[in-house]
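Can't paste images in this forum, so I'm doing it all in text. The chain is below; anyone willing to post the predicted structure tokens underneath?
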Amino acid sequence: MILPNQIARGVAEGTVCLVFRRWTKPNVRAGDTLRTVAGVIAVDSIESIAESAITEEQARQAGAASAAEVRAALRGPAGAPLYCIAVRWAGPDPRVALSQTSELAEDELAEIQRRLDRLDSRSERGPWTHDVLEVIAAHPGTRAAELAELLGRERDALKLDVRKLKNLGLTHSLDVGYRLAPRGAAYLANRRHRDQSS
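Text version of the structure:
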């Protein structure tokens, strides 16, 4: 489940505690966590509900002005079940703190390299992590479609790969495009130095 930034921030601020979704089958379960721009959001419960049963109080808890506004905003297949999902802020995204590290010890650099090597070895297209980091470093804030074109790749596949780098604390998503996180910049500087020395 993807939460719009405004809703995620509302959950973090305590003004939103319900989300409504129309799905053919639920995309989340109680106990799941979601990483958002506002931090980690926990799913406490998920229940099916009739559209006509949405109350004004539930609408306010979902960050809407009225139940009619909630109904008007619903997306998904017509006739699909509607779910009311109780959510709460569970804390900051640990990737953010990780990504802010700009001084890396040798063991940290080795661990990053090990994880990148594993991503490269599992890819059907061959090694990609270094090229993607270099392109993001050279073109911060550039749309994913343009980065994909520079790399000769499909946009959606590139976005999935950048998410893998973000999970390692190496990149940040911007409103448009990406940039290297301090951790990613430190790793890349070290990698360039090693490449020049060899």
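The chain is about 45% helix and 20% strand. The first strand starts at residue 18 and ends at 22.
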